[in-house]
Amino acid sequence: MNLHIDDYKDGDLYVLKLAGEIDAYTAPQLKEKLLELIKTEGIGVMVDLEKINYMDSTGLGVFISALKTANETNRSFKLINLQENVYRLFNITGLNEVMDIDNTIRGGK
């Protein structure tokens, strides 16, 4: 399955709505778009993962890079609406402790 990325600006915040899977095949596309938006001056980024049903360690790497870039550029970066199986990856790795993740966890399929 592919990754579909919709983005829009809401005030001074960019919102990315993702659908599909984040894996070695789709991660480069996401990373390019995400880092481009984070580097935009005065803009924060919120990523909606509600329709992401699968993510592997490559996806975690994308979000680690995004967090690092956000911290370096003093931008806000937040993940929202994670499916339970996707949130589990952040929890197991401890990334839920260092990333801004909305506490609303969605159930699986």
Describe the structure.
- This protein is of the alpha/beta class and 109 residues long.
- The protein has one domain: 2-Layer Sandwich (Transcription Regulator spoIIAA), CATH 3.30.750.24.
- 36% of the residues lie in helices and 37% in strands.
- It has three helices and seven strands, in the order ββαβαββαββ.
- The strands form two sheets. It has a five-stranded mixed beta sheet with strand order 1-2-3-4-6. A two-stranded parallel sheet has the order 5-7.
- Strand 1 and strand 2 form a beta hairpin.
- The longest helix is centred in the middle third of the chain and has 17 residues.
- The radius of gyration is 13 Å and the shape is globular.
- The relative contact order is 0.18.
Tell me the layout of helices and strands.
Layout: E1 3-10, E2 13-22, H1 27-38, E3 44-55, H2 57-73, E4 77-80, E5 82-83, H3 84-93, E6 100-101, E7 105-106
Parallel strand pairs: 2-3, 3-4, 4-6, 5-7
Antiparallel strand pairs: 1-2
Helix pairs in contact: 1-2
Features:
alpha/beta; two-stranded parallel sheet; 7 strands; 36% helix; globular; phosphoprotein; STAS_dom; STAS_dom_sf
Structural class: alpha/beta
Q: Give me the CATH fold name.
A: Transcription Regulator spoIIAA
Strand order of the largest sheet: 1-2-3-4-6
Structural domains: how many: 1
Instruction: Give helix and strand order, one letter per element, not per position.
Output: EEHEHEEHEE
End-to-end CA span: 16 Å
Strand content: 35-45%
Largest sheet: 5 strands, mixed
The coarse silhouette is globular
Helical proportion? 25-40%
Q: Can you give the mean pLDDT?
A: 91
CATH class: Alpha Beta
